[in-house]
What does this fold into?
Amino acid sequence: MVERQLHLNAFLMSTGHHEASWRLPESDPFAATDVAHYVNLARVAERGTFDSLFLADGPQLNGDVGRRPLGVLEPLTLLTVLAGVTERIGLIATASTTYNSPYNLARRFASLDHVSGGRAGWNIVTSATVEAARNFGLPELPDHAARYARADEFVQVAQKLWDSWEDDVIVADKSAGVWGDQSKIHPPAHHGEYFSVEGALNIPRSPQGYPLLVQAGSSEDGKGLAAKYAEAVFTAQQTLEEGLSFYGDLKARAVAAGREPNTIKILPGIVPVIGSTEAEAVAKDRELDEAIVPQYAHRQLASTLRIPVEELDLDKQLPADLLPEDAIEGAKSRYTLTVELARRERLTVRQLIGRLGGGRGHRTFTGTPEQVAETIETWFTRGAADGFNIMPATLPSGLELFVDHVVPILRSRGLFRTEYTASTLRGHYGLSRPANSNLLAEAVAR
It folds into this structure.
């Protein structure tokens, strides 16, 4: 029995992460807005004792609706529903620091943490598309450095708001007519470069103190933000060597930021296509890839690479004169990953579209349950991951196959829990409840 245990997150996306999954006979094209679909997925993931489930989000219609199901429910609303039909699994939502305000967002996550009994998590992102900017009255995308500077201050303010109530504010003395102790309320009185927030939050400190803080950007600025604040990191690496490099780099950055390295958990994304035999898995993967409509994916790739679609010949490799990464303002890490994958494997544009169709740059793996478990164990034991962001190519079948056939193998190898041992999301990830910063400051002052 190994002491260190895997962490598993279920990344849920309508009919699955493969862009053509909705075209399979088994798939429901209306699943993206079907609450019952997500209730089923949450219960399957909880049956597999996953640490958490995750819903991505962005404040824009992301692409051509002809390509795949794109209508999505607002994640905090949906997670509030899922909190009522699950008991232990963590509930993580993406929310942008670019187009939200700290007070409202801190309140929403504190509310979800109360409603769920301490199972809320926040995936902290900056919005990286000009389409989103124009939905909020901006003509162009704010530059990369400014978005991350805003994100840094946003998290600082959110933490001050979550700490604005001490845990024992509520007195509830009916005879004296005293409900709470006002001396234990600490308004942030924050006045910074991006935000001015004066008053305390209007909800008591939540069961976890703060929601679990998650981050998903792998640019230099993204890694800097993660090293400072993130407790779990969703990332995309294609090879073990890349995984080892990212893992070592981010752990070192966390130490340099004054943190213990085990307080930041790194979970690369993996898109498993599982069959009872390798041949069956390959056939499933081929069926999905053959269902991709190239014209949609072609335009999306051109948008990612910031070049006109007519410059991307489907049967040639990427143009040699693509923009350098430092010239890209949006989604820097995804741009770099896409270009490096194409260059490393000498892929034509058509082949690259096929590789990206399964997981938008996350590592795809096609094989038997034993082979999937083996690759997970290798990355985990070699020090390239603390766990994995499981991104089934098809839903619900891909998640069911993983829970029923891969999880038992991981359990038998002593790599993953057989039952929940904690009641909060922080507990699942082996993290402590943060102390209230106001009390720490008072202790230092004494």
